[in-house]
Amino acid sequence: MSDITTRDNAETPDHGHGAASSADAADLARPLYTGPGGLPAADVPHRPRASDVDPRAARRVERQVSAMFLLAVIMVILFVAAYVGIDPYTLVYIPVLGEVGAQNVALGFTFGLGVFAIGAGAIQWAKKLMPDVEVVQERHSMQSDGEETDAAVDQFERGKEESGFGQYRLIRRTLIAALALFPIPIVVLLRDLWSPKNGGFGPSPATLLSETAWTEGMPIVTDGTYVKIRPEDIPVGGLVSALPEDINEIQEEEHNLNERGKSAILLVRMEPDEIRSQQGEGWDFQGIVAYSKICTHVGCPIALYEHRTHHLLCPCHQSTFDLADSGNVIFGPAARRMPQLPIGVDEEGFLVAKSPFQEPVGPSFWERG
Amino acid sequence: MKALAARRRNPVVVTLLLLVALLGVGGVYAVATSTAPAEATASNDQTAIDEGKRLYLEGCSSCHGLNAEGTSNGPTLIGVGAASVHFQVATGRMPMAAPGAQAGAKPPVYNDADIAAMAAYIASLAPGPAIPTAEQLDYSNADVAEGGVLFRINCAQCHQAAGGGGALTQGKYAPSLMDATPQEIYEAMLTGPQNMPVFGDGTLTVEDKQAVIAYIMDLQEAPSPGGISLGRLGPVAEGLFLFAGVMVIFIGLAVWIGIRAR
To answer: How far is B51 from chain A (nearest CA, A)?
Structure first.
């Protein structure tokens, strides 16, 4: 509050910022500016502008300001004319910008210039014609004086006395009990996190985060075209975005995309001897490995796979996973390896999941530890 | 005329004449030499293979090995197929200008006949993806919307949803698709050049590939209604451009507002 100047005597000009100052003869002799608020002028040297001393300059500024306002009027008229008159699908070539919609450019240019002219005119007006004498604005001290604080304390004490809060023990205790139980409904509502299923409660949020639609023997289908995949469909160096076969039924039943978001996987094929390690014995099928597509950092779907380095890169925060080495993190903020899905083939020769994911997919959460 | 004659010994005139003469000679030479070799075509297979082998030994074997078996400087080319050779050489990616994270596209070094010969030689070593036929490349009946879905599932993660390309790890990058031809796109999906994965016909069928090509061609033809596309890199690039550009103007305006009037 040091920059708020307080004065006991309004007739003594302050030298700003509370610095102690003596009112010398020159200050007192200077005529005080009194504006609409009747504020005294600050004690800083004032240099008159050309428009203050030269009436011709003042008239010139007046003409400038009104020209800008007039320009705004013209621009509004042109805006309406462009909206009515220019065909919205006509393209026009403008250097640097290239081929752009003629009407679009005309609307933006006229409206933008119109708004700009109003603002620029207002600023020019304020700068050149309105008074530019610095003034001191008086403010009260923020702190109440002793009388007021005493009165407030008195009132509080009287309220305590008259309500009988200290006297009615039963009322006091039941009020405390009522307020203590008040948050309970809010806590109870958290039960809604268990998604309702078939009239009852579905799996817990932790279970929902831990489990996906992959089950033992679930056929793997391509994302987008939903066809089952044979191992020979994926060449070495190949990449396939895939989903569990029943994903569309699940989606229809649950009316949301949660399962699709959790169950998305990537199939990549490398030479079997290029696989340095994986998360379980024999979880690949002839060099085809399946990993979750959801980054373990904050859950971006990732498929930026480099087939020569076997690196999988997340575009969000550059976490990099090595799919030839158990999906381990080799760079970036991800804290956990990419979960691997054990795969094999069914009797018809289509790729299937050998088991569900053995660890939760996606980002870490509390229950996961 | 007199005024012109008077100035003919001016040094500027001499320099100009010299420039015109040099440009003329250079231009005639360029036109004369560029037309000659493109005519040669591989008349029969064995001739093409022999010619391809000669070109291979001359231009490729230092990195890919005398028998295309690969060296520490370059991978083996046995089994990569004619499609791979055509993609790499016709886009100028091969031969590489210098070792680096990635071989980028540049004006091709070989002409079509040379590329066909080299493709024939590499294809003769072991079976591999062939150069796509005109029928395979015909995307006129393909479903552009379906192609968009497939593009976003399989391609957009690296090449960006509007095909503008993007960065990968350690200096590698996915190139922009704005200048790619249908044949190059087809071959890239089929062969997986450099670090791009292979999208085999089993999981991305010929029809699917045609749909993806139709979508990319649609992207290439799509006008940019806002003018500058900024590489079609999306809202981040656009926001940065606006912020950097408009901020300068705003700072200028703020300075004008704050300056004391004279």
So the answer is: 30
pLDDT value for B237: 79
Residues in B touching A234 (Cβ below 8 Å): 200, 202-203
* The token pair that represents B17 in the structure block: 């004449």
Q: Determine, yes or no, domain membership for A50.
A: no
A225 and A262 together in one domain: yes
Contact A51 B157 (CB under 8 A): no
**Residue contact B226–A100, C-beta within 8 A:** yes
Are A98 and A221 within one domain?
A: no
pTM for this prediction: 0.69
Mutate to test the interface with B, among A129, A220, A239 (most CBs of B within 10 A): A239
Are A228 and A361 part of one and the same domain? yes
Question: B41 and chain A: CB distance < 8 Å anywhere?
Answer: no
Token digits for A283? 């979880």
Summarize the confidence of residues A183-210 as an average pLDDT: 82
- Distance to chain A for B163, nearest Cα, Å: 14
Residue finishing a domain among A136, A161, A182: A182
Question: B169-176: long-range contacts at Cβ-Cβ below 8 A with a sequence spacing of 24 or more?
Answer: B169/A306, B169/A309, B169/A311, B169/A313, B169/A318, B169/A320, B169/A331, B170/B101, B171/B100, B171/B101, B171/B102, B172/A306, B172/B101, B172/B102, B173/B102, B174/A304, B175/B104, B175/B105, B176/B231, B176/B232
Number of domains in chain A: 3
Of B150, B172, B227, the CB nearest to A306: B172
User: What is residue A40's predicted lDDT score, i.e. its pLDDT?
Assistant: 67
Q: Which CATH code is given to the segment(s) B136-221? A: 1.10.760.10
pLDDT tens digits, A275-287: 999 999 999 999 9
Residues A248 and A287 in one domain: yes
Are B200 and A235 in contact (CB < 8 Å)? yes
- Is A51 part of a structural domain of the chain? no
Q: Kindly indicate whether the ipTM for this predicted assembly is greater than 0.90, answering yes or no.
A: no
pLDDT at A160: 87
Any domain includes A302? yes
Does the pLDDT of residue A221 top 60, yes or no?
yes
Domain B38-125: CATH superfamily, name plus number: Cytochrome c-like domain (1.10.760.10)
Residues in A closer than 8 angstroms to B195, CB to CB, are 306-309
Backbone phi, psi, residue A292, to 5° = -60, 150
What's the token pair of residue A327?
Answer: 């999906």
**A41: in domain:** no
